[in-house]
Amino acid sequence: MDDTPRIPTTVRPAQDADIPAITRVYNQGIADRLATLETEPRDEDERRAWLLGRGERHPVLVAERGGEVVGWGCLNPFSPRPAYRFVADFSVYVGREARGGGVGGALLAALIAAAGRLGYHKLVLAAFPFNEAGMRLYARFGFREVGVYREQGMLDGRWVDTVVMELLLDGDGETGGRGDGK
Ligand SMILES: CC(C)(COP(=O)(O)OP(=O)(O)OC[C@H]1O[C@@H](n2cnc3c(N)ncnc32)[C@H](O)[C@@H]1OP(=O)(O)O)[C@@H](O)C(=O)NCCC(=O)NCCS
């Protein structure tokens, strides 16, 4: 068992003052080639417009440690078709300096709680199979692997697979997932 004391993490809704930190952390995630098929770095104006454009069903949350924003996550529309309104995709990004310390878990727990309050039935995501921290995080929260899209993206001249995962928020009979990371 790891007895290392964890630094308290606070998760709260994002605001305009968080834009520099959100942009910094996102650009690290893009550059690391572990998290996303996005390849172009973003600037603060782009992230500000993105934040302003979110509706109340698609919140952006930030994680703070010692007064610094070290990560962010959000609920994204899965599809504009009304039949999909109970499904949300999500994103979670932790700054390099803070990874492996429970921040991703705190953000995902808060996103799952927010999704429940907003009436979603399911969370889904697509991740790279070689994203070990992400795979462990999603497994801990009870996400079920739906399947693998083979050679789904071309990243720096190489094909990459993506793993599609889901979590039913009212209790996932197949995985027994509680969606609380316990
Ligand atoms: C993936 C990510 C969000 C996880 O957040 P985190 O704060 O680092 O994760 P946590 O500390 O909560 O730990 C998650 C699990 O991964 C493990 N882990 C952390 N870093 C790891 C690493 N480098 N390699 C392997 N496992 C790792 C932890 O031990 C933990 O395992 P457990 O749940 O079995 O105890 C974060 O690493 C990150 O932002 N990475 C870059 C962006 C990204 O990949 N986003 C997800 C896109 S799908």
Descriptive tags:
182 residues, alpha+beta, Aminopeptidase, binds coenzyme A, acyltransferase activity, transferring groups other than amino-acyl groups, GNAT_dom
Provide a short characterization of the protein structure:
The protein has 182 residues and is α+β, with helices and mostly antiparallel strands. The chain has helices at residues 19-32, 44-52, 103-117, 132-140, and strands at residues 10-13, 60-65, 68-77, 87-94, 122-127, 144-155, 158-168.
Commentary on this structure:
This protein is 26% helix and 31% strand. The protein is an alpha+beta fold and 182 residues long. A 7-stranded mixed beta sheet has the order 1-2-3-4-5-7-6. Helix 1 crosses helix 2. The longest helix has 15 residues, at 103-117. The radius of gyration is 16 Å and the shape is globular. The chain starts with 9 loop residues before the first strand and ends in a 14-residue tail after the last strand. Residues 29, 32, 34-35, 92-94, 99-105, 125, 127, 131-134, 136-137, 140 line the site of coenzyme A. Coenzyme A binds at residues 29, 32, 34-35, 92-94, 99-105, 125, 127, 131-134, 136-137, 140.
